[in-house]
Every structure is written in structure tokens, then in C-alpha cells.
Amino acid sequence: MTPQDLYAEVSPIATKILQIPQFNSSASMTSIPEWDSLAHVQLLSAIEKKFGIEISPDDAFKLTSAERLMQYLHAILKDKK
């Protein structure tokens, strides 16, 4: 799955949970006020469900931007195949 494919899969989830117009590589917890700790947990939970993965608490703590999240998902899903 390419990074573009991941954005296509994750963007609708993120825009719905964060209630933002678009989710792209510049999105982060510091740039989007709606992306607070509760929304972060909801977002990661929805992503876990969507891709059938489990994100450890240590990893969840680091996934505070769209770019980091996509890199993490790309690595996890590549290994999952």
C-alpha cells in the first residue's frame, strides 16, 4: 500500500473524527486544535479497527502528526503482508 493509498484510507476517518475539512501531511496535534487527546484516542482506535492492527501505547504517544502516522502505518502494514 502506497502512502497515497494510506491517505485515501485514513483521511475520511480523520476528517470525521477530528471534524476538519481535510487531513493531509501538514496535519498535526499542534496545528489542529480539534486533535486533542480524546480525539487522538478515537482516531487511533478507528485506524486499528480499519486495518486490523494494534497500536501500542508507546507508539500511540509518538503518532502526533499525519506524517508520523502514515510512516508508522506504512511500516506496520508492509510487515503484515
Describe the fold and architecture.
With 81 residues, the protein is mostly helical. Helix content is 64%, strand content 0%. The chain has a single domain (3-80), classed as ACP-like (Non-ribosomal Peptide Synthetase Peptidyl Carrier Protein, Chain A, Orthogonal Bundle), CATH 1.10.1200. The radius of gyration is 12 Å and the shape is globular.
Number of helices: 4
CATH architecture: Orthogonal Bundle
Name of the CATH class: Mainly Alpha
Proportion of strand residues? under 5%
Strand elements, count? 0
* CATH homologous superfamily (4th level) name: ACP-like
Q: What is the alpha-carbon Rg in Å?
A: 12 Å
Question: How far is it from the N-terminal to the C-terminal residue, by CA?
Answer: 10 Å
Dominant shape: globular
Q: What number of domains?
A: 1
Helix/strand-derived category reads: mainly alpha
Q: Which H/E pattern describes the elements? A: HHHH
Q: Biggest β-sheet, characterized?
A: none
How would you state the average pLDDT, rounded?
A: 94
Helix % is 55-70%
Poorly predicted tracts of residues? none
The name CATH uses for the topology is: Non-ribosomal Peptide Synthetase Peptidyl Carrier Protein, Chain A
